[in-house]
Amino acid sequence: MPTTTGMKAGGFYDAHSGGQRSALDEFLPWLEEAVADLPLAGGDPAPVGVMDIGSSEGANALYALDRVARRLRFATSRSLWLLFSDLPTNDFNRLFANLYPGGTAAVTSDDVFVGAVGGTAFGRLVPPASLHIATTFNAIGFLDKRPDAGLPNFILPMGPGPLAPREGVSVSEDERAPYRRQAEQDLHNFYAARAAELVPGGKLLVQVFGRDDRHSTSHGIYDVLSDAVLDGVDDGTLDRAVYERLVFPIYFRTVEELVRPIEADDRLAACFRLERHASHDVPIPFNTAFAESGDRSAWAKDYTGFLRAFTEAILAAALPDSPLQADTLESIYQRVEQRLIDDPARYEFHFISVGALLTRR
Ligand SMILES: C[S@@+](CC[C@H](N)C(=O)[O-])C[C@H]1O[C@@H](n2cnc3c(N)ncnc32)[C@H](O)[C@@H]1O
Question: Where are the domains of the chain?
Answer without folding.
Answer: 12-159+172-217+248-283+350-360
